[in-house]
Structures are given as C-alpha cells and as structure tokens.
Amino acid sequence: MTQTPPSAGALAGCRVIDLSRVLGGPYSTQVLADHGADVIKIEPPGGDETRGWGPPFAAGVAGDTAAYFVGVNRNKRGLALDLAQEAGRTFLRGLLADADVLVENFKPGTMEKWGLGYDTLKTAFPRLIHCRVSGFGADGPLGGLPGYDACAQAMCGLMSVNGDADGEPTRVGLPVVDMVTGLNATVAILLALNERVRSGLGQFLDITLYDCAISLLHPHAPNYFYGGKVPGRSGNAHPNIAPYETFATAAGTLFLAVGNNRQFEALCRTLDAPALAQDARFADNAARLAHRPQLHAALTALLAGKEAAGFAETLLARGVPAAAVQDVAQVLAHPHTRHRGMVLEDGAYRGIGSPIKLSRTPAALRRLPPALGEHNARFGAPAANDD
C-alpha cells in the first residue's frame, strides 16, 4: 500500500456516502476508500460508538480515538449529522445528489421512518446504489431484528464446529462474520457499479450477517448435505484431511496442512521416516483420516526434537504446506509482512495495509481516519449537538 500514490485509485471519481457504524459497513467502505473512492463518513452527534471501544486509544489520530475505530476508517472524510432532525436529513439529500453509493447499517425501517428509504431515494436519485448491511434483513421470521457478530456465529453454526472436540462451542477469535459481511458488501457494490454502466440505474443491495455467516460453512454444510452427519468440533484438525492440524515441537507449535499423497511422502522423507508413507494405515487421505490418532502420535514423536519456525521453512521449501504458529506481534514484525506492504505507518498512525494489490492503480493512504465532525465546516454541514 503506497503513501505516495502513482494514480488516483481504481475507484477515483466514485463518491460513497457512509452512514454505517461499528465494523461491517466501515470495513467495506474502507476497502472502497483505499482504492480511491471519495468516502464521506457521516456519524451521529455522539460519534460511531467504536470511538470509545478502548483502551487502547490511538494518541494523535482521529481525535485520540479508540484503536478499534482507527483500524477501519482511514481514507474517509468525516461529518457529524443528526439525521433525526430535518436539517440533517436535508443536508444528506444534498450529498446524495452527486453520490454513487450509499452504505448504511441502521435497523431496517429506520431510513424509511426518516423518508430516506430506497423506494423514496430511487425516485430522486435513480443512479444511486443503496447498500444496507443488517443482521437479518427487513422481512422473514427474523426480519428487522438487530444482528451482532458473536450472535451470528452462535446462531449460524460457526461456534458449533469451532473448538476442541471435548470442549465448549467457541467463538472465532476475531469478528469474522462482520468482516466477511463487509467484504460481501464491497463485492455487491462493485457488481452494481459495473451493471450500472449498462443500465444507467442503481439498485438496492441487501447484505446480512445471517446470510454471510451461513456462507462460511464450508466444508461443513457440503459434508452434511452429502454425508448426513451433523458436523462437530475437531479442534485444529480438518474434518476432511489428515495430517492437517497442530503439532508440538521442542520450540513452538507447528501446523501441518498436508493435502495429498505427494506432500505426505515429502513430509515423511524430510522427517527421515520414509517407511511411514508406505504404512497401509497412511496410504492415502481416507486411510489417514481413519487412523488419525495413530498418525498424530507418530508425527508428534518425530517432531518432538524439531524447532517449529525453522522446520516449517524447510518443509515449505520441499513443497509441504507448514507454518509455525505466530502471535500478532510476530506476524506484524515478520519481514515478509513488511515486504508485502501489510503494515502502514504515517506519523502516529499505524494500520494494516490493503491485501488487494493492483498493478496500475494500487491502494494508497490518502488521509488518516477523521476526528468526529472534522470536515463539517468544509462541507457547510449543520451543527450536530450531542444532547
């Protein structure tokens, strides 16, 4: 991710009005902003609640706000508007006059209550793409109910397959549903922008945490569809592949992700145990799955004297998927992380770089996350008081 962009970005000229808060919507709009879209983030008078989700707080960035907010709101201009007041809604309509995309994650019905629902807006702004991120959508048995990442993980089966086999259902240790919902919202927006080239019309994009959480159930849903068995928890082990799990070593934890016989044979040769690959119990993936405990025990003994990081590099060089388990500090400091531009720094700001690499129109850091209402005066926005 470059700090002196060689181009304006792939989405230069696209204006996005971002009414979203917390994570799913802001994650999506940051992707768009990284690639050149002019994203105007509009917050309520009290601000996006994640500004207070600390410590830690990012001193000198976005008004000394929480690191959580800073992580998903760069490259945006910031306004504070009270949309419960007519003056705020009138100002918003003015912004929408030359906007391409509106992103919001209000509870379904809120925009309609304010006279800003899609059916109303499409008449005044027929080219506008309106993306709503919500928990469950507006209708159906759960329609209109609020949605949260952890609840979606619980309700949609993710927790049921995450954790140790003899342990409790476990939340994935990051807000994976919110983030994949944000990515799906980004995909939907780009699809709609492309279609608008042909039709000249915008459309309504209905992206829910519920749908996106269910979409993550691979391979567990296909396994259930065709095997009839309700999937359970298997810890770090893959339900369909072996060896595909963690192993203790003399220094650190090693993850092996051996997906075929060639890789397994190479693993055994590297461990100076070629006979293991000839053992009938481990002859192919189906046999290895059937004898996973015995395979795990054999590999654990062979790996006991190894050092995870160095041996993982040896295995990778020989075509065997493997990795030492690293913590967050280790991966952020890794030379390849820096090489790939995945740590971005500018003064007091530090962030994760864009993983989307385009050769001619790369992502870039154009502006730091905004302080609350930072650009109100520049846009002539009405005062928004936090009563």
From TrEMBL:
Keywords: Transferase. The keyword Mitochondrion does not apply. Transmembrane segments: none annotated. The keyword Membrane does not apply. SUPFAM superfamilies: CoA-transferase family III (CaiB/BaiF). PANTHER family: SUCCINATE--HYDROXYMETHYLGLUTARATE COA-TRANSFERASE. This is Carnitine dehydratase. It comes from Bordetella genomosp. 1.
